[in-house]
Amino acid sequence: MPKWVKFIAAWLLLPFCLGAASALWRVARAAGGADTVWVPMLAGAACWVVIYLLLPRPMWLYVFGHELTHALWTWLFGGRVKRFKASAHGGHVLVTKHNFLIILAPYFFPLYAVLVALVYAAGHAVWDWSGGRPWFHLLLGAAYAFHVTLTGHVLHTRQTDITSQGYFFSAVIIFLGNALVLLVALPLLSGQSVMRALGAWLRLTGDMWIRSSQWF
Fold first, then answer.
1. Conformational region of residue 32, where left means phi above 0, alpha means psi within -120 to 50, and beta covers everything else
2. Distance between CA atoms of 69 and 170, rounded to whole angstroms?
3. What's the whole-model pTM score?
4. Distance of CA 118 to the CA centre of its chain
5. Across the strands, what pairs with 81?
6. What single-letter DSSP state applies at residue 146?
7. How many other C-beta atoms are found inside a 10 Å radius of the C-beta of residue 124?
8. pLDDT of 174-196, one tens digit each?
9. Residue-by-residue DSSP string for 14-75
10. Residue 154 Cα distances to 42, 45, 112, 128, angstroms
11. For the chain, first and last CA: distance in Å?
12. What's the confidence (pLDDT) of residue 162?
């Protein structure tokens, strides 16, 4: 897809971004459970931020997760991984399939946060870890903060993933990807309906489309 087509597509997707932001705000306000959800998650995020600011950054761990995310999304779309390399100074993965989701996935798919959730879900199913839910939220907050801070850190340098897709298009897709992850995760964590949250996103996006059409 030519970059000029992606640029136009990014403009057309802006109402979805505004709708997602509004839906996220509503989901966050209705989440509740501050003692078991928000306090542990924010504490975990704060712990990671302190580590991020005061200690050497674990770039190998981030790069490994970054390249592994490329590989996982390649497999998701039916491609194959032919070569994989990760180090503290950078990495690359050679795959047989390419699209904008595979290329941009590491910037919106929080791999380590997903792994924390999967481990907790498996452990809870086998051993009933309900008593450890605050610790799960603590680790989840730290893992998501890891994703946000180190993704922001690497975006300060020139990334071929971004330049290949165009800055504007990449920014819109990365925002929408992160918004979708949160619109699924937050309801699950706070006992809300995921379908209701996604429905609110679509409804609010429709409102944004109507408002934007009135400008022309």
1. left
2. 16
3. 0.90
4. 15
5. 95
6. H
7. 15
8. 999 999 999 998 888 877 888 99
9. HHHHHHHHHHHHHHHHHH--IIIIIHHHHHHHHHHHHHHHHS---HHHHHHHHHHHHHHHHH
10. 23, 19, 17, 38
11. 27
12. 93
Give Cα 160 to chain centroid, integer Å: 19
Contacts of 178 (CB under 8 A, 6+ apart): 108
Place of tokens 């306090």: 39
Say what the alpha-carbon torsion angle 193, 196, 202, 205 is, to the nearest 10 degrees: -90
Alpha-carbon distance of 28 to 182, in angstroms, equals 10
- What's the average model confidence in pLDDT over 120-145? 89
Residue 215 has what pLDDT? 60
Q: Give the tens place of pLDDT for each residue, 117-127.
A: 999 988 888 88
- The pLDDT value recorded for residue 134 is 86
Q: Which range, of 78-82, 88-92, 97-101, averages the lowest pLDDT?
A: 88-92
